[in-house]
Amino acid sequence: MSTPDSEPDSATSRGNGDSDDLDERDANIQPLAGRVIPHSAAEDVLGVLTGTFMAALGLYLLEQSQAVSGGTAGLALLLTFGTPLGLACLFFLVNVPFFALALWRKGWRFTLRTALSVGVVSAFAAVCEMYLPVPDINPVFGVFAGNTLLGVALLIVFRHGSSLGGFNILAIIAQEQFNLRGGYVQMGLDITVILLAFTVLAPENVLLSTAGAVVMNVILAFNHRPGRYRA
């Protein structure tokens, strides 16, 4: 028979057991702020499609403004002034050698995503050329709008585990392997490409292109930092 004195001890024991169970459950609950929720495959596809479309539109605006950008996109734009090939074809061809670098340092998955992204940008660029004629565009607006679109596009495709090839691959490797700001690495490479534009463009177009490239890379430098994105 239990005594009155034993009932509180039993209640206390049950209380301690419940408390231990709660402590154990709490220890297994990861704080919401610390959780890493990866993107689904559908989210990656939609993200890359959005980024590549914005990139293609940005490149098209730069082409129509008689301006260039940095990286392989800038090289493709430069080549449009001296070859019969269009921007869509040149953008893909210029990026082909960088796929080997991506495969060496980033693996098959990243390389495949990058190749697909570059191909989609080329396809969207061809669509822009066919269905978005721009008979007269203000160069200042075209350059700054184009580079803003490119900067945001790069952030989107980076966020979804891909890139737009070329110097973007070098920038990502520099950031992940050497903890360097990807935006600053990209900026240095872009300046080199833009300097080459003096061979085919008027000085005022090159200066405007330089200002636009700075805008794009500032967007990258302020928003794409080591450890910021984990999903």
UniProtKB/TrEMBL annotation:
Location in or out of the cell: Cell membrane
Topology relative to the membrane: Multi-pass membrane protein
Membrane as UniProt keyword: yes
Transmembrane spans: 45-62, 74-103, 115-134, 178-200, 206-223
Skewed-composition ranges (Polar residues): 1-16
Residue ranges, annotated region (Disordered): 1-24
Annotated InterPro entries: UPF0750_membrane, YitT
GO annotation, cellular component aspect: plasma membrane
UniProt entry tagged with the keyword Membrane: yes
Keywords from the named record: Cell membrane, Membrane, Transmembrane, Transmembrane helix
Main location: membrane
Official protein name in the record: YitT family protein
The organism of origin for this protein: Nesterenkonia salmonea
